Amino acid sequence: MSETDLPGALRETLFRLADLFDAEGVVYMIVGALAVAMWGRPRATADIDITLRGDAERLESLTARAERAGFMLDREWLEWQPLLRDRHRRLTAPGSIVDLMRPRDAHEEGALGRSRHLLVEGRRLPFVAPDDLILMKVKAGRPRDFEDATSVLVAQRGTIDLVYVSDWARQLGVD
Fold it and tell me: What is the pLDDT of residues 67-83, one digit of tens each?
């Protein structure tokens, strides 16, 4: 991913988040469209999706820390998402939206330990592994997510652990 692929505001936000998480010792991985851009076919996005390890209290403390670092918590979004309050926070920064999420299931918890560090403009950042990204996209189930999963599968053919993906797909009920 080059500087021309990642708009300035998104790049600045991503690096600020990485600095914050690294300073706090947070285990995290970049998921969503930015991960698809690394493993599959890039597509336009204005947000950064992060899965991080921790309980609801840890998510709350990281949100407070992010607010002190200049991010804004989208309280209206949180109010309209009552079932996600202990799992998900939406932050905003100039030109960017950030979704911080706790793992939804055992697969995502395990995926945090399988993340891979990739270079983004000279910085090593943790991204979800392509096998796990495919599973996350299939679980999400929107047409765009199926397209994303297909682009990763095609771009990474020969490197995807199909037994791993099939086993998890069966366990998750998305086979």
Answer: 999 999 999 988 898 88
Q: Report the predicted TM-score, pTM, of the whole model to 2 decimal places.
A: 0.93
H or E element in which residue 135 lies: helix 130-140
Amino acid 80 reads W
User: What's the CA angle centered on 172, arms 166 and 174, to 5 degrees?
Assistant: 70
Q: Which amino acid is at 70?
A: G
CA distance linking residue 92 with residue 83, whole number of Å = 20
Q: List C-alpha distances in Å: 175 to 2, 139, 167.
A: 35, 10, 9
Sequence-distant (6+) residues with CB within 8 A of 118 are: 38, 124, 125, 127
Residue-wise pLDDT for 102-138, tens only, equals 999 999 999 999 999 999 988 999 999 999 999 999 9
CA dihedral of residues 37, 39, 41, 45 (deg, nearest 10): -20
